[in-house]
């Protein structure tokens, strides 16, 4: 677990953000780039989940805390997603723009998330007492489609396809590079702004969107890693007993 905030700090607004997507799409690298401003060259698969936290300064002197859950790419069965989605304010669906199958599988991840949300709503409706003042938490989470690895050549997912899917599913939309840091800060600043309902001037978001780190590896090296991940994930699609499947 990584936490930038001290134990003594109290935030008036805290939001839970879960990050899902196939193994190897760069979820952990994206989160670590944001929370720790570093990029790991070596791929290490997240087993289960990991937690990070990051404070965000918004206008009106408002500080919010983002609690970011890094969900392992193999944790795609219905039971686990149901546990992770509980209390989430936002869900980031991450895919690799150089891997068409990872984009296609976003639909399966979305279906699993919505199935979990549907079950939660049914459970809530059967409970008579619901605390007032938590209406915001009772809404469906904010959804955002994130295309990662934009620094790599041989892109397989077009901007048009990305934007069309995001519009159809009523998701926010963003392209990022965990390697360079491009648009990473802007992504989470926008997320915090939407969740807190505090507008951030576009010029400020633009500053957040600047590349925040030097490029320290060759794209060709990462293409080799990406290709090996694609090969290892070819036969990983499966259907679980809860009916959620990655196709």
UniProtKB/TrEMBL annotation:
Q: Which domain of life is it from?
A: Eukaryota
One Pfam family of this chain:
Ras
Which residue intervals make up region (Disordered)? Answer: 225-247
Recorded GO molecular functions are: GTP binding; GTPase activity
Arranged from A to Z, the UniProt key words for this protein are: Nucleotide-binding
Signal peptide, first to last residue: none
The protein's name: Putative small GTP-binding protein Rab28
Q: What is the lineage of its organism?
A: Eukaryota, Discoba, Euglenozoa, Kinetoplastea, Metakinetoplastina
């Amino acid at each position: 677990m990584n936490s930038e905030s001290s134990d003594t700090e109290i935030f008036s607004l805290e939001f839970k953000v879960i990050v899902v997507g196939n193994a190897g799409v760069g979820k952990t690298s994206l989160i670590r780039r944001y929370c720790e401003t570093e990029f790991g060259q070596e791929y290490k698969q997240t087993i289960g989940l990991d937690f990070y936290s990051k404070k965000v300064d918004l206008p009106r002197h408002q500080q919010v805390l983002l609690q970011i859950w890094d969900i392992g790419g193999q944790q795609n069965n219905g039971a686990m997603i149901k546990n992770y989605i509980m209390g989430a304010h936002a869900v980031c669906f991450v895919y690799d723009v150089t891997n068409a199958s990872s984009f296609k599988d976003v639909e399966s991840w979305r279906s699993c998330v919505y199935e979990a949300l549907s079950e939660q709503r049914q459970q809530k409706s059967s409970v008579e007492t619901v605390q007032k003042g938590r209406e915001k938490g009772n809404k469906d989470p904010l959804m955002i489609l994130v295309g990662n690895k934009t620094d790599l050549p041989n892109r397989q997912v077009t901007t048009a396809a990305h934007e069309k899917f995001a519009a159809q599913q009523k998701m926010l939309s963003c392209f990022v590079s965990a390697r360079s840091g491009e648009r990473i800060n802007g992504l989470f600043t926008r997320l915090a702004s939407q969740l807190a309902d505090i507008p951030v001037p576009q010029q400020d978001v633009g500053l957040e969107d600047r590349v925040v780190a030097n490029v320290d590896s060759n794209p060709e090296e990462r293409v080799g890693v990406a290709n090996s991940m694609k090969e290892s994930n070819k036969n990983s699609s499966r259907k679980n007993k809860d009916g959620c499947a990655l196709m």
